[in-house]
Amino acid sequence: MKLSKKNAVVVRKALSGWVDEGTLSAEQQQHLLQNMQVQPFDWRRLARYAFLAALASLVIAITSLFTDSWLLEQLSELFSLDAPVRMAIAAVLAVLVYIWALRRRLRYPDKRYSNEAILFIAILLTACALWQLGVWLDNGSGRVSVLLVLAAVLYGVIGWFSRSGLVWWFALLSLGNAFGAETGYLSGWGAYWLGMSYPIRFIAFGTVLIAAALLLKPPLAQRGLERVSLAMGLLYLFIALWILSIFGNYGDLDSWYSVHQIELLHWSLLFGIVAAAAIWLGLKNDDGMLRGFGLTFLGINLYTRFFEFFWDSMPKAIFFIVLGISLWALGHYAENIWRLGRQSQDATDD
Question: Which of 21, 206, 287, 308 could form a disulfide with 282 if both were Cys (CB 3.0 to 4.6 A apart)?
Answer without folding.
Answer: 287
